[in-house]
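Subject: Sanity check before I submit

Could someone independently write out the structure tokens for this chain? I want to compare against mine line by line before I put it in a report. The sequence has 305 residues.
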Amino acid sequence: IIIGGHSHDLIKGISSEKNLIISPKGEPVVITQVGKDGNYLGILDVVFNSDGVIRSAHNNVQKTINFEKDLSIEDIKDKYLGIPEIISYLDHDIRSPEEIAENPLASFVADAIREKSNAQIVMFNNSNVRGILDAGQVTTRDISEILPFNDSLCKILVSERRIIDALNWGAKTTVNKPEYLQTSGLRYTITPQNTVKDVYLENQDGTLTKLNHVNPGLEKKFVVVCKTSYVTDGFLGYKALKVPKGDIIETYTWFQSDVVINYVKKFNNKHLEIELKKRIIVENEPNTESCPELANIFSKKQVAI
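---
Independent answer below. Compare away.
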């Protein structure tokens, strides 16, 4: 049995054409994986013979929204992690949409970080925010669970060209689906050619300033907050945002989850409205074949699995 994860493939059922293969010894091998962003979960039931060879298998992949939480597990969490604080309420589930580029949870988190840091722009990879916020009570644990990494963040000065280069890299890069950079303070459009256009800076007063996506300059600099341990390290090809440590204005000691929790608390127990901001518009279904640069990265095993 092979349980995949990092490529984010969604593999339902069992078929000899996609995920049932025969090993050199003539034994069946089942491969399964449940996509990305916590939208699906899988239950794999397998029967082995006395020699440990698979006789039959059932791969049940279903949407997480259809799966009810085990309340006994929630009680165990409370026992060992402490009872979480209720900080707000949601009228409906908030999850990462499969068919569009912008993640509403990521936009919400980016807005919280932007307010805390007073930066012009916040940019981070989509996989920084994961999972679902269920309708009903929102607790401190719920916020912590959608931000599982709590990587450090830093404030840097970034030229217009480097911003456009980073957005273009995210538009063409894929590990099954493009790794669009989620933002606060920016909005942009992805073309059918997997490039960006109509890139706008969202100013604090609500006005928009258009950036030059065709011939971006190096002179004008923008105050940007990124993840220190991922984006500004140039990981997965984000070389456009990689900076020497001396060029970092400030490295923050606070965690993303704490910032978002305090941001939610400012709503004073009002129902949260987490929705799409239309910051990333995809004109057409992009080409999701892996680009050569990314294939080269994986072939050299530079990506930690």
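---
OP: Matches mine. For the report I'm noting this point. The longest helix spans residues 104-117.
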